[in-house]
Structure prediction request, 833 residues.
Amino acid sequence: MVHGEAWTLKEFFTYPNEYIYWTIQIVMYPFMTGLVAGAFVLSSLYHVFGVKELKGIARFSLVFSFALLPVAMLPLMLHLQQPQRGIEVMMTPHFTSAIAAFGIVFSTYGMIVASELWFVYRKHFVEEALKLRAIENRNLGEHLAHLLFSALTLGAMDLSDAALEADERAVKKLAACGIPVACFLHGYAGFIFGSVKANALWMTPLMPVIFICSAVVSGIALCMLTYIITMEIRKFLAARKKHLYPELPSPEELKSAELQVVTMTAKYLVMFLVAAITLELLDLIFRGYTAMKSWDILRSVIYEKDFVNIFVIQYGMGNLLPFIIFLTPGLTIRRAMLGTSFVLLGVFMMRWNVVIGGQAFSSSLSGFMHYTLPIWPDSMENFKEGLFGALTVAIVPFVLFWIINKVMPVFKDTH
Amino acid sequence: MKSHVWRPLYVVLLVIAAVLVARKIMVPADFGVGSRGYMYGWHRPSNEEQWKQVSVKYRTAEYCKNCHRDKYDEIKKSPHAAINCENCHGPALGHPDDPKSLTIDRNRELCARCHFRLEYRTSGRGKIRGIDPKTHHPELECVTCHWPHDPRKEGRT
Amino acid sequence: MISRRNFCKKSLLMAGGLAIPLAALELFDPKRLLAEKADGKKTRWVFLVDTNKCVGCGFCVKACKIENEVPYDANVTRTWVERYIVTRDGKTHIDSPKGARDGFETTKIDIGEGKFEEIKNDDIDKAFFVPKLCNQCDNPPCVQVCPVGATYQTADGVVLVDRSWCIGCGYCIMGCPYGVRFFHPVYHVAEKCNFCYHRISKGMQTACVDACAFGARRVGNIRDPNDPVTKVIMTERVNVLKEEYGTTPQVFYLGLTKEVK
Prediction:
């Protein structure tokens, strides 16, 4: 079986070499980079625009954005037929290709987020390093921790007010620089698809903008959701350990802070959701109105074969339901959880409908290709490009987040 | 620059330096812009020669003519004149050294490629005389009755 | 202190002044002049397909697979032949079973997943065969989208893939409007027809041209005015596939009609 043959069903006339080559991992990649960009924009809303209510979630989303970064590379590594050559994108980039932008944009964004995190956590690093240095006979774990935190301070041990203010100013500047870079990180992903003239569904100048808007939507939604879940865990732990550590905040204190943050963030979520759906509907209406040569087959893909995926799941569950949930007064934490989950589903389906939907019809415009996601990983190829590969990509950021949280704790007040 | 604010920048510069060093090591020295410019000619030029070195499998009837002159002449005077020897005998490769002899494909499917009668009047196919392989002596090889080097002659078994 | 008016005047003057020598560089660039003339190259490979002559025997597909070491049983091919049958009700039926590697063994149209469509001879208005291969475009969209420079165009117009550099991302396969690219099942990199570059560089013809007994396929050099292929392209009514994409394909077709996809 050639690559793609195992999961492609062809109907009517397709060119002999046509298979669905860009599968679940190519759906996961823009989804993950979208989360990265969105999480960063959310964090910047506090650092740059000073939206005070978002302070609690700002640091959280910055760390999460950093945890998501290496994960953004993972679907690409799993998809490439020659993953060990992936580094060539940095070595001999061909900038006429949108994918070549990956190397520069990714590295730039990574460095901005890493630098911003350094400034946010420098005080914590210095305090931890000094604390560990004070211990007389360090065991192996403490010794390694001491090395790590000392290295992370980069030798800048000054914790005076002036130094900390310099940190804050640097954070603000970096967050401001980072917003366009985050937009570029996902805009270029949209350009990857939008510039392919050979694909009638992908080619539209709106694609980069649609991707950016839905990226911000997904980032905000994920941060809200993870924030809520983490707060629930904190509340649970606080209640259990209250008698040991009376200085921990009470569950009531935690709860009220949480709802305020969530309500505030939900406003921004709805704004970007409106932008995203407007552009997508605009694209659809234009295509139907101008009815180019490809419209015949596109119509049967959009309104018949993919009707449920597009209108029921993406637009219905992913857009309409969240609108109702977030715009009806009296938002509760539980409703917010439901709403953000639907939003994430909708954003995922948008990526699916673009990537898989764009390959659902042949370039001959006279045939169809049906994608069956490989479920059970009975071969390396079916693992990498199947359900289990996708699940791996989905779970790794949370694992990384847990690890990074040990070095850069999201809930400790470091200022 | 005394302020500690610049420390991350130094780390960044270090990373960039590392990438440039890696590039020097990993990228072939001749990689660059070709005659078609950066958009269409960004490549490793030595690859062009590699493609030219691919071995030739089919040598064409002109090569067979050198030793098999009689068969060559017979075919060239027959209705099958335009068919290359290797279409039915497989690629010459290093023949006569390797392989010592070429196969003779006597399968019905081979002849049926052209002689399965298709009523396509608007195509060259419609001008080729043919049969329905399912009904026309399905138990025999075509060459039992037809001589492929000159289809006007009777077959030799 | 300079006044605003003077500042604007002086800036415009400076900009204008700078533009002149820079523009002169443009005007008198000898390289560009030569390029615009006829780009000075001696060879530009082109292909000529006569769909009136093609009988759908598939010998070209078989020869190509063997000559270019594409695994015979794999369902990918560097070249293929499509069958078009236009019936009286105005419908066009198209198929290409295994790319016509074994010719067309049945009158039934292969519509995928083991299903076939019966066509009665009396219902046929038109029926013909169309061979397809890489167009070696002058503006190859596949080369434009390669992120690492693994695919490129040679000076004589053939688009090649560097097997040792391709990362297998598949962007070039998505970028080709003609569907000629695929992943090689053994090397796991991008692959496509390259006009048998190893043969044409030695003065031979491509394997498919040699295998075609009906003269439906021909390869030539458009820069050679004495080349018979060049003469046909210059004097007869030829067409190309999907011209609206702006790829400037260099495979020319005789008898290419509106049904062809």
Observations:
- The first helix of chain B runs from residue 7 to 26.
- Helices of chain B lie at 7-26, 37-41, 46-52, 61-65, 69-76, 85-89, 108-115.
- The mean pLDDT of chain B is 92.
